[in-house]
Every structure is written in structure tokens, then in C-alpha cells.
Amino acid sequence: MVKLQVDHLTKHYWLEREDRNVLALSDVSFSVGDGEFMAIVGPSGCGKTSMLNIVAGLLTYEEGNVIIDNKKVKGPGIDRAVVFQHASLLPWRTIAGNVRYGMELQRRFDEKTMKERADYFIKLVGLTGFERHYPSELSGGMQQRVNLARALAADPAVLLMDEPFAALDAQTREFMQAELLKIWNKAKKTVLFITHQINEAIYLADRVVVMSARPGRVKDIFEVPFDRPRNLSLKREPRFLELEDAVWKLIEEESDRLGMVAAV
């Protein structure tokens, strides 16, 4: 069953200083199945984040459609939650208070339900015992866990993740990838995940969309053939490295093309 459908999406940006339009996305189409984990990679500036923000309802677009559960996206909605690169937690709220925040904004959960859901997702992300701590008392990885718990507690149909581990050190990032898969396996959410790191995309996803250089188009979609659950040691296996090389080859081609265009 298709949960999210992106059809022939086109997005322009107006550069006022240069008095011209820039085509950021051109005729982008793909679908994400119910409960599927899809990752999107591509050269810098290919429009990955713009596309995610359009799906989130935070950006408008000129042509095409974005459809979730057979309903056209016309703006932000409770059927989507976004996990950004930075945790953006409210510093004056405790961890429990931050996790509750999205539910409070929705006004569709009673007090008992909010407490139960906050407790459940704090436990799910491995932060039981930190409910009364403040964000400044947590590491970057722990703050991103709170960010994820907050998004999941709001019960979205689609979870949108924009390079959520980019600001973490390499070791913490690897650990968080493994933890995310455990959490996703229990939460069963449909995920659209943006990343620059190819091995992260392959390790996490069921399918990987490769975007072209600007204007962003879907260059190819790779099926990830590895069984779940996945161990981090999978990244060192020859079959994993072969797929990583295949994805990287396409991105390298697009980066080279962009470089030649820039030189002209």
C-alpha cells in the first residue's frame, strides 16, 4: 500500500539579488510504501531538503502533487512530523516536557494519554531516568533521541528526517543509526530520510533514491537487498560495499556534470 506519493514535482526559487529564477526540482516522482524506510541521497544542492520541506508542507511548489493517504498536501499537518539536523529542543522544558510538546500543540490527546505516550517513547529511545533533565544536561546524541521521541509521540503517518545525525561525531552517528533501526522496527512508521552519507542510506533503508545534480530529478532508485535486522558489521561486507560503490558512481557522475556546467 502506498503511503506517500510524489508526482511530477517542480520547484523554483526566486533569487532577488540576481533577478532570476532557479529551478531546484524538476519532474520528481516516487512513492513510499506504508511502513517503508526510504532514503534520499544526491549531490549537494540537488534539492533533497527542499523536497522534504515540500512534503512537510513548509514549502510551496509550482507543479505536481504530493499525496499522503490519498489526500493532497496543502500545508503542515498532524499526519507528518519532521526530525531536523539539530534537535531544536526547548531549553526551559525537561525531556518529558519536550516530548509532550508536539502532542500539546495538536490538542487531541488527554493528559493521561500524553503522559503514557511520553513515557513509552522516552523508554523506546533509551532515555528512561532522564525525564526531568534539561537539554543542556544531555549529549548531542541524547538530544537527538529526544527529538525523535517527540516526533514519534505525536503519532505521525509519515516521519520526515533531514540529516538527523549530521551534527554528531562519527562514533555516535554509527550508534544512532543502529538505534534508529531498532526504534523504527518497533514503531512501524513510514520514513523519508535525507542524508549525504551513502552507507548510512543503504544501512537504514529499504530503497535508496539517488537524485541528480540541480535541478534535482530522480536519477535512479536502488532496492536494498539485505535482510533485517541489520548489524553494523554489514557495512564491511563485500555485497554492501558493491552497492555503495554503485550509488556513489551515480553521484560522482552528477557531481562531475555539475562541475563542468559551473566551469562553462
Structure commentary:
The strands form two sheets. Strands 6-7-8-3-9-10 form a six-stranded mixed sheet, sandwiched between helices. A four-stranded antiparallel sheet has the order 2-1-4-5, covered by helices on one side. It starts with a strand and ends with a helix. Strand 4 and strand 5 form a beta hairpin. The chain is of the alpha/beta class and 264 residues long. Helix 2 packs across helix 3 (111-124), helix 2 (95-106) packs parallel to helix 4 (140-153) and helix 3 crosses helix 4. The chain has two domains: 2-79 and 159-166 and 179-263, Rossmann fold (3-Layer(aba) Sandwich); 86-155, no CATH class. The chain has helices at 48-56, 95-106, 111-124, 140-153, 170-187, 198-204, 238-263, and strands at residues 2-15, 20-33, 37-41, 63-68, 71-72, 80-83, 158-162, 190-194, 207-211, 218-223.
